[in-house]
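Quick entry, no commentary yet.
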Amino acid sequence: MTSISTSDISLDQAHAVVHAALDKAKAIDTKMDIAVVDAGGNLKAFFRMDDAWIGSIDISIKKARTARFFDMPTGDIGGLSQPGGPLYGIEHSNGGLITFPGGVPIKSGDTVIGAIGVSGSSVENDHAVAAAGAAACS
C-alpha cells in the first residue's frame, strides 16, 4: 500500500515569503499585492502594499492558487494554454485561473508546501517578485 504524506507551509514560512517578496518589490520600486496559499490552495498570508492596485488583489490570489493547483509557475501554464496548446481554455476551470507570470510554487526540498502569487506591475516584475518570495523557503 502506498502512503501519501503532505507538508504545509507554516505561518512563519509564509511571513518569510511575503517579506522576501516585499523586499524585492521595494528594490525594483513597484507596488504589489502579494498572496501566499498553503498546500491546499487556501489563503495563508496576504499583503497589499500602499497604493497597490485594488484590482490586483484577486489576481494575486488566483495566481498563487493556480501555481499550487498545478505545481508550476503560472507563466509556464500560460505557454501551454495558448490557442492550439494542450491546456487551451484551462483558465476557465477551478473558478477561474490566472495563466500569466507572477505565480510560483513554494517548495521545501522537493515537496510543494504552498505557492505565492504577485500582481501589480509588468508580468516580468510580478514573476521576479514572486520568485524572490518563493526562494525564501528553498
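second:
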Amino acid sequence: MPVEPNSLANLEYLPYLNEGYLPKEFEGKVGAYAIFDQEQTLQFVGYSRDIYLSLKQHLVRRPQYCYWLKVQTIDRPNRTALEKIQAAWIAENGSIPLGNANERTQWEQAIDVKAAMTLEERSEYTNPENDPQTQHKILKNAARRIEAEILAALQSRQVQEAIRFNPKLKDSGLLDLK
C-alpha cells in the first residue's frame, strides 16, 4: 500500500527539545521530518532511517535553527515514499527552504573545520614553513575550539543529550557525532 504524504499544515508542531532532550519516540523510526526555527519558519525537510539520530546531527550542525519539528513516520524504509513526502512538503511550503538549497551542506554533512577556521588559524595552517605535524596540530586545535563553541551553543539551549564527536573524524578536520 503506497504511503501518502500528510499535509505539513495538518501536522502539529513538536518542540525540538523537551527539557533538554530530543523526542525519544522517534528513536529507530523511519520517516520524514521538517525542521523549523523559533518563529516556526521552515528551515529544512529531511528523511531518515532513524529520525532521532538525524535530529541530533542537525541540532549539532545548526542549533540556531532547530526549535520546532513536524514528523511523518512510515513502517518500513522506502526511499521513494520518503522522497515523495519531502517533495510534497517543500511544494506545500511554496519555496525551497535554505536547508534544502544553498545551506544543504551545513545541514547534511560533517562540519568542515578548515572552512570554519579563523583568519589567524588559516594563515598559520597554510604557512609553507610549517611541516605536516604542525599543520595537524593547528587543525586539531581549531577542531577543539569549534567543538567548544558548538557545545556552548547547545548548553545555552539547555541541551541534556549526550554529545560525543567522532575522534577519528576530528583528526581529519571534520566534526560529526559518533
